Amino acid sequence: MARFINTIGRALRETGQAMDRLGLAAMDVENTFLVPLNRHRQLMNLEGKVPSLSGDVWVAPSASAIGDVAVSAGASVWYGTVLRGDAAPIVVGPGSNIQDLTSITTSEGAGVTIGSKVTVGHKAMLHGCSIGDGTLVGMGAQVYNSTVEGGAMVAAGAVVKDAAVGAGQLWAGNPATHVRDLTPDEVQAMVKQAEAYATLSGKHRTEFADVADLMDSEGAQAKGSY
């Protein structure tokens, strides 16, 4: 019965989208555009584990949060990113941004915890790690089974594996090593970058349906802040 109801509901949604496109096509508006039908699901329950989004979170239409994933207020998950909490929890702290095409995965007993105002750059890969507040993980960087303390920077393309990155340190290379300590201005600049992304995500968020509406339609449930 549940599958039947889900099928009927999806058919009704698709019919509504088709009618919307027809209406847009009939409008004589210069900036009218057609929205393609998209079966992609941003939020997916898995074995009773439900993604939890708090406050003004923004999840891009092509991103995926699966299973035991909690995204805190003001955070953003960008286009093509996958947060796969199938084996252990993933927690994204307030005001953090997980940029385009990032992959965050878990294994049994090895979840991922990301603090507040963290920036995770494009195409980064995180697995079984802890990322402290105000940290920047550069584009294409990989962090496996490691701890990165607050105010640190993992350089673009760096590979951090089974390591402990100290607070305020810059690590780079493959395998990554401690290069130097960051200056207070550099640490503050990383926080400001996260704040800028929070503002930018608000602009994107206004162009798409609220995540809460999607959660209602796909069966996920909003929970309290994390």
UniProtKB/TrEMBL annotation:
TM region positions: none
Domain of life, per lineage: Eukaryota
InterPro entries named in the record = LbH_gamma_CA-like, Transf_Hexapept/Carb_Anhydrase, Trimer_LpxA-like_sf
UniProt protein name: Gamma carbonic anhydrase
